Amino acid sequence: MAKTGREVDTQSVAAFTVLKRxxxxxxxxxxQQALVCYQEGIDLLMQVLRGTKDDTKKSNLRKxxxxxxxxxxxxxxxxxxxxxxxxxxxQIKIEENATGFSYESLFQKYLNETVTEVWIQDPYIRQIHQxxxxxxxxxxxxxxxxxxxxxHLLTSLDEGSGKQQxxxxxxEIKESLQNHGVLLEIEYSSSVHDREIRFNNGWMxxxxxxxxxxxxxxxxxxxxxxxxxLRPCHETTVDIFHNKYTKKI
Length: 249
Fold this sequence. Notes:
By secondary structure, this protein is an alpha/beta fold. Helix content is about 45%, strand content about 15%.
């Protein structure tokens, strides 16, 4: 069914909003995020083109699309070369009380159908809320487009009163993952301090606070209790690297 002029105008505004963001990210050298926005914006602009009848407008749209596609291709080639050379590095700063940083929002762009194995190094998967964070992260990993078969967790052992809680919690997560055809290998180390996550497609993410960067919700019935994109965060820094040859931690 043909789209109305109002629908086309709405899509046009959406397309140029995304593309404006792409240009901003590009100018800030945040190329991976810029590329995602370029691709999304170009796709929206293509939909606008298909719904446009005026020949002059069509011609202008084609020129704009070509310009954005050319820039997106340059960015993509640059990123591919950086990844090939093992030089890729991007940094995201999460401000105090910032929202919009659920695991899906933060990690999704680095996950695809080639991800079959994941390594997680985090010394603090101990307390109940930390165990739930890890569970939530695992839930994300078993969803499409990922085809994760093995998850490796390196953490520290709680030697205090929470030892049984930690052990039983991780065992339950392990058994639940087995029901989805995923193997969870758990290793404890008293000397682990760094926090990093590696995917076997080459991406490595280091978060200053590990998976535990969300603040406690104000109440059980406050926004952000369930949807972590609405959950305020502690201040932290996220460093993203790419290495063609991802190895076990």
